[in-house]
UniProtKB/TrEMBL annotation:
Localization: Endoplasmic reticulum membrane
GO molecular function: metalloendopeptidase activity
UniProt protein name: CAAX prenyl protease 2
Gene Ontology cellular-component terms listed: endoplasmic reticulum membrane
Pfam families xref list: Rce1-like (PF02517)
Alphabetized UniProt keyword annotations: Endoplasmic reticulum, Hydrolase, Membrane, Protease, Signal, Transmembrane, Transmembrane helix
Predominant cellular place of this UniProt entry's protein: endoplasmic reticulum
Record PANTHER family: CAAX PRENYL PROTEASE 2, PROTEASE U48 CAAX PRENYL PROTEASE RCE1
Membrane topology note: Multi-pass membrane protein
Family under the similarity heading: Belongs to the peptidase U48 family.
Catalytic activity, as annotated: Hydrolyzes the peptide bond -P2-(S-farnesyl or geranylgeranyl)C-P1'-P2'-P3'-COOH where P1' and P2' are amino acids with aliphatic sidechains and P3' is any C-terminal residue
Amino acid sequence: MVFSCSQILFLGPLMQLSMDCPCDLADGLKVVLAPRSWARCLTDMRWLRNQVIAPLTEELVFRACMLPMLAPCMGLGPAVFTCPLFFGVAHFHHIIEQLRFRQSSVGNIFLSAAFQFSYTAVFGAYTAFLFIRTGHLIGPVLCHSFCNYMGFPAVCAALEHPQRRPLLAGYALGVGLFLLLLQPLTDPKLYGSLPLCVLLERAGDSEAPLCS
């Protein structure tokens, strides 16, 4: 159910992919489900890094390990917004890679890094919220992998798309449904115990609005 939140949010980009895809749904499913396609992915180190290793290790470090340490010290709410700052800074290594291979001008590289820091910090707050609400790491990991695959929504391309009206309606509908369904789909009662909430209660902090 947590994974479906991200899919709902990306309703517009998913519609955009389907509109621009040259093959129909049946052919696309054949390609996705083919053993040869999966074997090719599993031997691609970049795919493994982006879809498996990075989501698992980053969620383990920044959500499962860092959040439980920060929450008793500063409270649950501040921890949700502080932890993603470290997560955003952790992506600055891309600056070194881009400078080394001279992929763009120095100004553009640092501007891109600032933009990436902004949306990775927002995404980090979102997955921290998921981890706190559900008490499980699998949801944030799956969402992380899915968002790595989708990338940042191509809003500019959507504005210039031949089918921009239904496409923009899909973008708006996705955001609206995401905001409407986020709380119900992450209801703590659906997922059992909440480690961070229990930790805060033991630390004497009775206010845990994200858990209610």
